[in-house]
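Class, carefully examine what follows:
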Amino acid sequence: SKLTSLGQLEMTWRSRVHFHPLLVRVLHKSRLRYYGKPEKKVDMPYQAYFEVADGSGMMSMVLWNSLCPEWYNSMKVGTVLLLEQYAVKTSYPFKTQPTPGDSQMKRFATIEISLNVRDPPTKISIIPEEMVKPEWGLPEVKYRFITRSELDDLPNNHSCDVIGLVTFVGRAERARKREHGEDFWLYRWAHAIDGTSDQPFILEIFATSQPDVFEHIHPMTYLVCTQMRVVRDLTESPSSTVYLTTSNESQIFITGCHKGQPYTKDTKVKNFIQWTKTQNEADQMKKTVIGGYYPFPRPPSNFLKY
């Protein structure tokens, strides 16, 4: 059928009611958001953002309400979609922005694609990877993997992806979303090593929309975390309190989930796998820890400083 591109869509959307189909690849995926309120009568108040791209650039796509339970898990990073009968709206200005793996990619930030059950009823098709043709010009998923030895030089709030062997995982803890609110964030701390430094990655992993993965992070698993943010305590000595925290677009993968993921082609991921082959499993097992209370960032060593 006659296709349009994201670039053409941005130029012509105001003068059209019906749009030609789009062929795009998912590059980023946000966590699922529940926006239900007691006074609002919405059957399934869910929303999820995706960043999708074709040869002309990248744009946000929003999945609404009952389409979320139906499609959210099938739309993975790297999935190619054919979209028909979608709506186009002006962008929501306050949403979080993932950092693209390809810094050269053009971003269309004024509008977003809206996928709904009605007005109009969107038709979504997933194109299997083996049927994707090179002449479609769809961009590959690119990552920003770093090693542990590179982390100390990165600035606060820098966005990156990491892979490591888990040596510690803490219990799930809760933090209030707002001071007097009743909603909580669920998170856990983990340590992962990659052989490039004596220090581990310290990871603050919030429960994203992947409960099956969040609950099964355990020592000796290969852990991949994407779209992590560097957090530095700039008041203390900066190197001692650097850790990584998840963002709204973070995806987490553990042993058993890696097959077929786009990051398996990344050089730093391949280097890490080579390093793990040189390690003795029994020796690493002796150094692993699970559970317990993990106070971080650490309180000062003496009471006066505290």
